Amino acid sequence: MRPADEAPGLAAAQDGEATRRLAAAAVGTDGARVAAPGSPWPFFIGWLVASALAWWLERRRRPARG
After folding, report:
1. What is the DSSP letter of 4?
2. Does the keyword Transmembrane helix apply (predicted)?
């Protein structure tokens, strides 16, 4: 047995190998993307409209400096 801080490279290699074994043993990991229903564009447009409205309302409340 070695101290934990004696060979950090060996410990990292062992951790990497253990991670690869776990990933290979996982069920249903064939690299395919999971299909999500719908398009993300309506959410983006909704966020954009809400952000623009909030910005416009914030700008409207400030008195004009001149």
Report:
1. T
2. yes
In order, the DSSP letters of 17-43 are HHHHHHHHHSTT-SSPPPP-SS-SHHH
Residue-wise pLDDT tens digits, 24-47: 887 665 667 777 789 999 999 999
With 0-12 / 13-18 / 19 or more C-beta atoms within 10 angstroms meaning exposed / middle / buried, residue 30 is exposed
Instruction: Break the chain into its structural domains and give their ranges.
Output: 40-66
Task: Give the mean pLDDT of 7-24.
Answer: 89
Q: What is the pLDDT of residue 44?
A: 96
